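Quick one: structure tokens for this chain, please?
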Amino acid sequence: WDSSLDVDELIKEFTDYMYGNGAKYIREYINLITKEFSKYTFKIFDFPNSEYIKDGLFDKCEELFCKAEAAAENEVILERIKKEHLSIEFVRTVRIEDDKIRSKKTDEFAKKVKHFKLTEIFERRNLNCSFECMKNSRYSLEGRNDGWMYLYYTMK
């Protein structure tokens, strides 16, 4: 890593390449969460009901991803943006209070996860079991003996 390079320029170069016409919205999302999250101390793995995760913030994130998707100039770019969008969809889904609505939204989320061939959304947990946990427990906190379940997914 060359610490003399401009981080903002590197982010711009990367996002322009990966997200095309949607890049400006992805950068706006990155800047938004960086600004908001810098106010808190948090870990790499955290609960979906952590104090820094606020519905209003994620509403704005959702709006930015929708704009990025609408701006995508081709299917390859659109698929990249949609894959990144899953992290926001996960948080919004597990925070739904109504069990029936959360279950329906989890089914929709599961289809997207499978479309992208992701193999995990909770560390070391079968994918279908993870979806069941999302359906049956707000914040996906139940279902483990130690009581923890973190925001996590791997893109394989």
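The chain has six helices and no strands.
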